[in-house]
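Subject line: Sequence and fold of a protein, written as structure tokens
Area: Proteins and the way their chains fold up in space.
Start of record: The labelled sequence and token lines come straight after this line.
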Amino acid sequence: MQITKQLAIFLDNRPGMLARLADALAEAKINIYAITTSDTVDHSVIRLVVNDYRKALHVFEEHGTLVVEDDILMIDGSNKPGELARLAHKLADAGVNIEYCYSATPPDAKKGLMVMRVSNPNKALKVLNS
């Protein structure tokens, strides 16, 4: 479990935009650990956790893409029923709000990856590690 950076990229909501983003990262040899997308009428927000966020920031800035960075928790944990409930209760009991979360876990995997944006990453890390 660690605090790391997540990049939120704002793209036009039209065919090929995600492909171009993925091409730019691949060309720069940047690996994607986790990704989620959400859409609005005119744009998409792509949230990414990558192996080299500074290099990715540079790539996006070179392409004139709006990007925002946030601290998030990257949790490598067990892939079993009740795991999210356990984490959510620990954070709630400590007064830490989960603003959003997403996971990247293959169905048969024993371990999973969860990304959480929380109100206080340092406190959350301390609580979840105790």
